[in-house]
Design goal:
Elements (H helix, E strand, L loop, with lengths): L6 E4 L2 H14 L5 H21 L14 E6 L4 E6 L6 H8 L7 H10 L3 H8 L13 E9 L6 E6 L4 E7 L5 E8 L14 H12 L6 E8 L5 E7 L16 H12 L7 E7 L5 E7 L16 E5 L2 E7 L11 E6 L8 H6 L1 H24 L1 H21 L4 H7 L1 E4 L2 E7 H7 L6 E6 L3 H5 L5 H6 L4 E3 L4 H7 L2 E2 L2 E5 L15 H13 L3 H8 L4 E6 L8 E4 L7 H9 L9 E5 L4 H12 L5 H16 L7 H15 L1
Parallel strand pairs: 2-8, 12-14, 17-18, 17-20, 21-23
Antiparallel strand pairs: 1-6, 2-3, 3-7, 4-5, 4-7, 5-6, 8-9, 10-11, 11-14, 12-13, 15-16, 15-18, 19-20, 22-23
Helix pairs in contact: 2-6, 4-5, 9-10, 9-11, 10-11, 10-15, 20-21
Amino acid sequence: MGSSSVETLEYQAETRQLMRLVIHSIYSNKDIFLRELISNASDALDKLRLESLTDSSLVEDGTDLHISLEVDKDARTLTVTDNGIGMSRDDLVDLIGTIAKSGTADLLAKIKESKDAATAENLIGQFGVGFYSAFMVADKVTLRTRRAGTDSGTEWESDGEGAYTIQAVDGLPVGTSVTLHLKAADSEDGLADYLSESKIRQIVKHYSDFIRWPIRMTTEHTDAEGATTRDIDTLNSMKALWARPRTEVTEDEYREFYQQISHDWLAPAETIHMRAEGTFEYEALLFIPSQTPFDLYTRETKGGVQLYVKRVFIMDDCEALMPNYLRFVKGVVDAHDLSLNVSREILQQDRQIRGVRRRLTKKVLGAIKDMQSKDAERYANVWAQFGRALKEGLIEDTDNAETLLELVSAASTQDAEKTTTLREYVERMKDGQDAIYYLTGETRAMVENSPHMEAFAAKGYEVLILTDPVDEVWADQVPDFDGHRLQSIAKGQVDLDDSAAGDKEADADKAQREQDFAALLPWLTTALSEQVKEVRLSSRLTTSAACIVGDAHDMTPTLEKMYRAMGQQLSTVKRILELNAAHPLITTLRTAHDADPANPALAEIAELIYGSALLAEGGDLPDPARFTRLLTDRLTSTL
């Protein structure tokens, strides 16, 4: 093999500094050096195939395009070879000799300003420096290459320090080989043994399993009698389902792949396979599971899907591609136009990635909407498993709020066995009813037995029963559905009086009640001023003596408790005590007050009425011991 004289070229000062950061500080996971080299080899094969479409002489008939890995344990070398497009001398100087063509100084300054390695790695993601990751594990790298369609090859060599050498070499095959002279196994870098077959297999499987070209390695096997045989094994599956047309993928293949990435042994409820072309090309293969992952609602749960770039694995749990409320969705997005070193920070800022996120979100919600209309049983299961998470979207995602509201399915007083959609609720509304009534609570039993329900049940009004913690937030924030406002029956004034407008008898009864209680109500408001801001007569009670309600725009007690648990500093929200004017306890209290307003027992009875109303809605007594003592004394005095 002939060669010309060796030429030594110096790195620029800024480039040397940046190289040192790449080699010694930036990448926390050294395994990615092999991912980078295999990805470069795959790109070279792609380019050769593309250029051969217009120049068939570049690839001889029968050429087996592939990537090979070769280990020499004695020499401590690992070589990555491809028979792709190769590089000329000028290509080497331009692509390998220079890390970044512009902005190196600015990037270097930002890295120096950063306080930790994670920040530095985010910054370095803006530049194509993957080849130099080889120096994390090697103290010398030798690259030999010949470009397809040329006769002469080139050898490049560097120790990753101040300079590199380059020379012309004859007799090289088309393609590129990169030989890493690995550092000593006991070096201060604490290297894993990258000469180990099992280690190489593990890295290829993790990062490069779906590369379209075969990745081969010669392996040795020793039988029971000590005889050694050498075989050429293909290390990657090359089965990137998302890159194949949907008509060519079987349901069994989809299921097997879903189980591989999710570790869920049930079949997915829905498979979404899509391809986007244009200014930003990508493929996506997404799955909606059939059951809730055990950690879906824990703080440690990570959302997002796997990100690949041209079939090379980049990261798990890419939050930039999927909103948090769809964190249960599993799958893969393979983008064609991103750098392998792209960081989470850059993804979050990328306009095209935000566009991908919007489209994927609409695809997932559209798939659930199709279930709702075409397969009620499957939709009911998906909502039962993931409805709580989907309702978070009503708070986070205003762009898709209309679609999410159509998906909402809730328990109601209409049918104890079935849930109902808001659309179905609206279709059943009474004539003249303009609001969608709901009540939140911890359990269905607590909601059904709430005093707030009494008048609605008596008059046959349907009420939605909302028992998820997130219901406290979204139901209060969503203004309406299909033109009908959502109204909590525990807030604001409720008028279910179905007597005819202008009914003189009904108007007279109401006026009489107000006159009867004209003295008691202001007295109670003063007596309970520490607990409530008003005491008034109720139109929502039929059997209970009293209930506590909020003003139309007040925060609910449950929501207030949630915010306080998160460390929010809130002022206490006083609510309203409503009395049932027809209840014997209330009428007796009114009579006693009218007879002797100074009776000290009245104040204690007022406290008991308030405490009982608080307990009835599932609230916490401010002073349980005092309430118990007052109740015990009152019971004793009646015996």
